[in-house]
Amino acid sequence: MSKKILLATTLMLVMSPSVFAADGEALYASKGCLACHGADGKSPIAPAYPKVVGQSKEYTEQQMKDIKSGARSNGQSAVMKGIMAAVTDEEIKAIAEFLASSS
Ligand code: HEC
User: Fold this and answer.
1) What is the best residue among 23, 52, 58 to mutate for testing ligand 1's pocket, by most ligand atoms within 8 Å of CB?
2) Which CATH architecture has domain 22-101?
3) Nearest Cα to Cα of residue 49 among 35, 30, 61, 62
């Protein structure tokens, strides 16, 4: 790679805000969400599991926080609670933004 291209790439990375914000799409994959909700967020592995795209980011964020904290706890949410222990509030926000913007 030439020095010019390297410099341009570095500048792009430094100036892009997305480098600093958590990447919701990458997190959705790396945290294992797709194992239950499907790669596209709308093909869950069981009929009783919800599709997670297309809701508002506010709603989606709150549901994840409630499942994490246990405020939302029915038979089904227990399945997801363990996963949420490894997801920070900032990551929840980024994932919610990604899911709300997908359809
Ligand atoms: C082991 C399976 C499993 C995994 C892994 C999992 N979930 Fe879930 N998720 C569920 C189930 C089951 C529910 C429904 C809970 C209920 O019935 O209260 C749910 C509910 C939700 C909801 C609420 C949907 C709504 O309409 O209220 C969202 C949002 C969500 N999951 C996102 C995620 C994200 C993001 C991840 C990864 C960090 C994740 N889930 C990982 C099983 C899972």
Assistant:
1) 52
2) Orthogonal Bundle (1.10)
3) 35
